Amino acid sequence: MNEKFDYLIVGAGLFGAVFAHEAALKGKKVKVIEKRDHIAGNIYTKEVAGIQVHQYGAHIFHTSDRAIWNYVNQFAEFNRYTNTPVANYHGEMYNLPFNMNTFNKLWGVRTPQEAAQKIQEQRDAAKISGQPRNLEEQAITLIGTDIYEKLIKGYTEKQWGQKATELPAFIIRRLPVRYTYDNNYFNDTYQGIPIGGYTQIVAKMLDHPNIDVETNMDFFARKAEYLADYPKVVFTGMIDQFFDYQLGELAYRSLRFETETLPVDNYQGNAVINYTDAETPFTRIIEHKHFEFGKGDDNQTVITKEYPVDWKRGDEPYYPVNNQTNNNLYKQYAKLGAKQDQIIFGGRLGQYRYYDMHQVIHAALVTVKAEFESGK
Ligand code: FAD
Ligand code: UDP
């Protein structure tokens, strides 16, 4: 047994970093291992051409929980960025999320009453009765068939590689529907992008004499030794991989990011443009400088195209696919996990949940509380 450390944390993402930080503050000695060559998991940002480039897709922090907002503000100052993505459907531009600007552009309606009537007509014509059984029914129930066809179906089916009729309804409920002229993508009270990027947040969390971080180290290269050496392990990788896929594979969705620096000052006029047709192979283009209000070199801009990819073993598992089958399988893995007192499973992959950053911080703090208040 390792005399030096109380905890081994597998994964230097947000969950692992919050746990490590809180454990260190409680006097525990923590070893963090990370298989990538950098810390911060999927929130990793890096400076290029004078701006912070989000290496694993656009990350906008948002929460309505004041405690979580205060917590994260210990580690960075946030700017006032509000996410207002725009959709490009075969060259037609629409504001997102679905709001009066979208309805006006699409139908020429001007008042909330006219918009509501239009959506009701489309809902009635679609004849969906009872609880929506899948994403398509949920979308049409919320917003009608025109928006479903132009702004949801193509994007969703390429993003998830499945028919919208086979996907769970909750995915589309992430997006607000608003009868006001308000393009804010989130309903939350607090929102922004950390000035100087996200990596510093994790770096500051891990910057403690009780924490030792090792990158380029995969837990599975030494699993048996790690389990023999460390009294407690916090595992934020894939729970099915931890158990050697013994009950079967959980499904994930992967992505390929194509980043380029272009010799133009302003490429697309917005941080995020979604391509909602079925034919364009990428889902969105991010232009990173628009997260930071005029920062960055003139006549240079960095853009990233995001291509959805089928996941296979060895690929980065960016999204859990939380349909009924996978959730049931996850529950079986979680049962196995609960029998192992030595291991805590956490984060998007360890808990197989479509967590946003604020939810990961919350989940990690709940885990910390359970761990340190139960007197273990
Ligand atoms: P991760 O960040 O995945 O960290 C897990 C870490 O564990 C990784 O670094 C991984 O390399 C490491 N690891 C895994 N297995 C092993 C192993 N065997 N050995 C060693 N290390 C291992 N959230 C928002 O709030 N707002 C957004 O706008 C937003 N946009 C997003 C866009 C995209 C494209 C994606 C994919 C996610 C987005 N998120 C967003 C979600 C956000 O990224 C997550 O909530 C958060 O990063 C999850 O933190 P985590 O620690 O659970 O996982
Ligand atoms: N979505 C869509 N059209 C869009 C944007 C999103 O149909 O222009 C759907 C799609 O199914 C997506 C879901 O809404 O998976 C959630 O969108 P969000 O922007 O929250 O996705 P994330 O940033 O997590 O990839």
UniProtKB/TrEMBL annotation:
Keyword vocabulary terms for this entry: FAD, Flavoprotein, Isomerase
UDP-galactopyranose mutase C-terminal domain mapped to chain residues: 150-354
Cofactor(s) recorded in Swiss-Prot or TrEMBL: FAD
Keyword Isomerase appears in the UniProt entry: yes
InterPro entries named in the record: UDP-GALP_mutase, UDP-GalPyranose_mutase_C
Molecular function as annotated in GO: flavin adenine dinucleotide binding; UDP-galactopyranose mutase activity
A GO-annotated cellular component: cytosol
Keyword Flavoprotein part of the UniProt annotation: yes
PANTHER family: UDP-GALACTOPYRANOSE MUTASE
Family per similarity comment: Belongs to the UDP-galactopyranose/dTDP-fucopyranose mutase family.
Name listed for the protein in its UniProt record: Udp-galactopyranose mutase
Organism: Lactiplantibacillus xiangfangensis
Lineage: Bacteria, Bacillati, Bacillota, Bacilli, Lactobacillales
